[in-house]
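Researcher: I'd like a candidate sequence for this fold, 263 residues long. If you have to choose between options at a position, lean toward the conservative one.
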């Protein structure tokens, strides 16, 4: 009964949770669980997701991790032979017709007591089936212990990485807020400067237009005065000689008028 329980437990530990069969080319993924390489690869391909999740614990990782587990592979190759002996307890040796109650660790095969005494197995390590099953089960348990330890380390590193990422994100967010505040202040300052300059330019424009109007008006007055003088001079030129020679009076008038224009 103990042998049956040990063989059943061994079979359970060596079964892939995807195909439910004994491991074939077993690999460990990021969380420490083991699967057939083909099974887990197909599972991830079907999912078509950016994250690689474990079918058993649902732990996810951005990185695809497939670590070959050679110890588990060797034990998985032995297990079917022990399981065959469990399912066929009265199985006999084809050569000697004796029950197969022993297991040769060197050849990884079931043998009978006669085979054990033969030259073929003379220097080999031979154990009773139950003891061999317990021995390999212990190896699996030790392997699982190491795998769980590796898993805990990976989880710890993952937690540390997540904490660092959160801290980095907080710093980046703070720096972005500071930069945004600086840009807003600069924008407000430039806006105020723009409004100030526009106001100044508008005032200068009004002053310049007023000065231009005053200058134009004064020029128009001077031109009008000159036109009057020109007309008067042309009229005097048509006067008789006696009147024309009396130049003192109108010359003085002209000088006063011209002096006013220059002023």
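Model: Candidate sequence:
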């Amino acid at each position: 009964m103990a042998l049956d329980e040990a063989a059943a437990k061994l079979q359970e530990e060596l079964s892939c949770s995807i195909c439910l069969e004994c491991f074939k080319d077993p690999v460990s993924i990021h969380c420490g669980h083991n699967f057939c390489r083909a099974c887990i690869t197909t599972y991830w391909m079907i999912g078509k997701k950016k994250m690689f999740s474990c079918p058993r614990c649902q732990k996810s990782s951005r990185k695809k991790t497939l670590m070959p587990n050679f110890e588990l592979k060797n034990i998985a190759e032995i297990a079917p032979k022990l399981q065959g002996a469990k399912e066929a307890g009265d199985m006999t040796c084809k050569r000697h017709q004796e029950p197969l109650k022993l297991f040769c660790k060197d050849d990884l095969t079931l043998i009978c007591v006669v085979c054990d005494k033969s030259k073929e197995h003379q220097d080999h390590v031979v154990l009773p089936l139950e003891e061999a099953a317990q021995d390999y089960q212990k190896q699996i348990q030790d392997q699982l212990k190491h795998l769980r330890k590796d898993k805990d380390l990976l989880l710890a590193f993952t937690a540390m990485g997540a904490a660092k990422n959160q801290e980095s994100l907080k710093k980046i967010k703070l720096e972005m807020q500071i930069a945004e505040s600086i840009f807003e202040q600069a924008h407000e300052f430039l806006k105020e400067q723009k409004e100030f300059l526009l106001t100044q330019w508008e005032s200068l424009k009004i002053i310049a237009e007023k000065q231009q109007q005053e200058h134009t008006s004064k020029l128009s007055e001077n031109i009008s005065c000159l036109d009057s003088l020109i007309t008067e001079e042309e009229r005097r030129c048509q006067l008789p000689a006696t009147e024309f020679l009396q130049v003192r009076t109108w010359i003085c008038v002209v000088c006063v008028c011209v002096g006013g224009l220059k002023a």
